[in-house]
Amino acid sequence: MITPVLLCGGSGTRLWPLSRKSYPKQFAALIGDTTLFQASATRLSGPDFAAPMVLTNADFRFIVTEQLAEAGIDPAAILIEPEGRNTAPAVLAAALWLEKTDPDALMLVAPSDHVVPDAAAFRAAIEAGTGAAEAGQLVTFGIKPTHAETGYGYLELAEDPGDFAARPLALSRFVEKPDAARAEEMLAAGTYLWNAGIFLFSVAAILKAFRAYAPALVDPVQAAVDQGKPDLGFLRLAPAPWADANDISIDYAVMEHADNLSVVPFAAGWSDLGGWDAVWRETGPDARGVALSGPATALDCDDTLLRSEDDALEVVGIGLKNIITVAMPDAVLVADASRAQDVKQAVAALKAKKAKQAESFPKDHRPWGWFESLVIGERFQVKRIVVHPGAALSLQSHHHRSEHWIVVEGTAKVTVDDDVKLVTENQSVYIPLGAVHRMENPGKVPMVLIEVQTGTYLGEDDIIRYEDVYSRD
Amino acid sequence: MITPVLLCGGSGTRLWPLSRKSYPKQFAALIGDTTLFQASATRLSGPDFAAPMVLTNADFRFIVTEQLAEAGIDPAAILIEPEGRNTAPAVLAAALWLEKTDPDALMLVAPSDHVVPDAAAFRAAIEAGTGAAEAGQLVTFGIKPTHAETGYGYLELAEDPGDFAARPLALSRFVEKPDAARAEEMLAAGTYLWNAGIFLFSVAAILKAFRAYAPALVDPVQAAVDQGKPDLGFLRLAPAPWADANDISIDYAVMEHADNLSVVPFAAGWSDLGGWDAVWRETGPDARGVALSGPATALDCDDTLLRSEDDALEVVGIGLKNIITVAMPDAVLVADASRAQDVKQAVAALKAKKAKQAESFPKDHRPWGWFESLVIGERFQVKRIVVHPGAALSLQSHHHRSEHWIVVEGTAKVTVDDDVKLVTENQSVYIPLGAVHRMENPGKVPMVLIEVQTGTYLGEDDIIRYEDVYSRD
After folding, report:
1. A314 and B330 in contact by Cβ < 8 A?
2. Smallest CA–CA separation between A356 and chain B, in Å?
3. Probe site for chain A from B378, B424, B426, B453 (most A CB atoms < 10 A)
4. Does the structural domain A2-266 have CATH classification 3.90.550.10?
5. Domain boundaries A363-467, corresponding CATH code
6. What are the residue boundaries of the structural domains of chain A, listed by start?
7. pLDDT per residue over B353-390, tens digit each?
8. What's the per-residue H, E or C state across chain A?
């Protein structure tokens, strides 16, 4: 049995506006109907796989549980990194946790923001590496290059991969991201693969390697795991020792030093969706190079991506060449395709002008569900609030606003001061200014409520919390 | 005194998505803070001008009154054309109405969707034409060409305009829209002006010309005016005779035949904003040709228009050249600037796929104010409803939905069956399914109300009207 270890603490901005710090690309449905994280978890499920472990950060923990639940996957553990320290501490934490719970496990470490269209071929490649991993090898999976990419590291093979069939081959060394000329040479040589950051090894083998090549990491991460706090199904790694762990990738910390490396070639299609140009390629452009997503219309366009991320948002392109357009109701990106990597600069520019679109979405995900502001006036605001079955908002009060709640789907259990009652579809409740109140969903289906606030100050920080099942301040 | 006659029944689609059939460009703030219609009416006001007449259609009548009120302009008359019949019947109707009310008037006929940055210079040009108009001439205003435009008709001068100073010159003839070569010739010749469709003449002179050159129009239009119905301050021209009037422009019907034509050159800047490329020019592009409007950010762009039509919508362009981007929360246009005239095709394509964005906005303007849908679920809908002071919705009931109303600004007078009461900010009312109800704004400020509907069918057509001050079915 193989335990998938899904890394999903990253928050890339190269796919802005769809990927934002508060809800990055791994949680978005970039290709197909499920999110990249869900697709990654699903791809690594089945008879050969144990329940997955997930490494993420505190901000994303409820997104992870929500998306796993939606995909019907029950995780073995969700480890919360107090702060991002790159891949080495994360993988080490997973290995140390498994050492306690399943010391004979094989670990399949994978990022959760990649696209692998042929999941069966990918599982077959993993199967092909299993024997080597069981024999103590550190197995990495190398992607057959399709072009002279300068954005990835490479794996140099000790032998000719022939037809790139999935079998363990000897690995000579890791190669840093090359310049264009070197990338062309490596593509021509035929003995280099892309480093996709996907690994298979036994708990014992990787711990041995960490102890040999990165001993300074072991004590802090061991302490972070041992002193970690279970919290609502998560394991929160202990912040103090975690802060002592170096911020370093597993490649630098371990792989580049190890002498028990194998690589399994993978040639059935892969992308890290590292920019909108990659998304364009993976979307499957038509004969003129046009790729559409959502309600988008192209008139006489070539080599162009037109994406609308909202069913109620029509996007039209006319006479475009090499243009990427990604439209959301609160943000629109239009870029020359050759400038896909400069989207990061755009995000920085928006951040500099304090535009909330730089990092946040209109939808705000919370432990109990999510809300979005539908309209904000000078002295009123209307929100849609969706509460998961069994979830509850904190017991709270406000100094500056009253609230009208109208339940439009499901049933709410509402507390207003000493009064507790059930409120169902088409019923309303009034929460006077100052009243201590709570909203819960006691039912089996999501509860949707429209909240109309009126008052002189409507900020999220006008809140006094008396009780919170999610231990927030 | 000159009576402005503002023509604003048109509904162009070349400036989609900002201009749509239900709310076309003359009513939008395309350049500056006021709408083109408001700017046109304001430009033709002052000591030399009487109150304006407006020719429009039934769909736009309340937009016209709302925008005039906002601009502080009290119209002499608003004539409603039962259907669009081009400019000749419209101008004739205005002349026949003035014949009855102010037979000695001079009429200044102008479209209401043009941009004239220098209003004082424009009024001076009108002043320069007044003597000729009083002497019985049909005075047209001709724009000094700035480039070899193929989209306009031209006016051929009988004499050299010299420095294009504003004074009446003799006009040889009207010239149809030319091909590119002919446009170049006319630009080089220096004796041709653009026909902007702006005219000054006395009521007597234009009626004499209609009777001489387009006698078939006179009886139907006279009957349409005489049998017109006053309705809430509008004059609704009688549909039956109006339908007998030819659909013809004033150029074809009268001007091309008349021998008492003068033209006053105008060289101080003008645009009909006939496409987004024209809007780009009029917006005042910077040294690299970049024109921005709303929250828009350009990174390394050239000759590009980036417009966001919503304060909450960030638009970013990266590395663009010759691109027009116009973004609204429900529709985004991205076009090569050379294809600005093909926006019409885009609208046709959207119409073919039945996208409501082809013709309608999320905001729905009604006689009493406007509403917009904030969110639509399977069995609920949330609307923001804004009611003008003194206005009232119809007395109505629904078969399939209940409604919760929460007043968030101003005060509402609410009727529910036999109960009538005042509801003010932060108060709510419940309208049960089937109840006969009405919402009014008895106050002096706009009333804003959030409506939460629940029910199995939420279409606008689930309405039984019992009484309506606006005589709707």
Report:
1. yes
2. 9
3. B426
4. yes
5. 2.60.120.10
6. 2-266, 276-354, 363-467
7. 999 999 999 888 888 999 999 999 999 999 999 999 99
8. CEEEEEECCCCCCCCCCCCECCECHHHCCCCCCCCHHHHHHHHCCCCCECCCEEEEEHHHHHHHHHHHHHHCCCCCEEEEECCCCCHHHHHHHHHHHHHHHCCCCEEEEEECCCECCCHHHHHHHHHHHHHHHHCCCEEEEEECCCCCCCCCCEEEECCCCCCCCCCCEEEEEEECCCCHHHHHHHHHHCCEEEEEEEEEEEHHHHHHHHHHHCHHHHHHHHHHHHCCEEECCEEECCHHHHHCCCCCCHHHHHHCCCCCEEEEEECCCCECCCCHHHHHHHHCCCCCCEEEECCEEEECCECEEEEECCCCCEEEEECCECEEEEEECCEEEEEEHHHHHHHHHHHHHHHHCCCHHHCCCCEEEECCEEEEEEEECCCEEEEEEEECCCCECCEEECCCEEEEEEEEECEEEEEECCEEEEEECCEEEEECCCCCEEEECCCCCCEEEEEEEEECCCCCCCCEEEECCCCCC
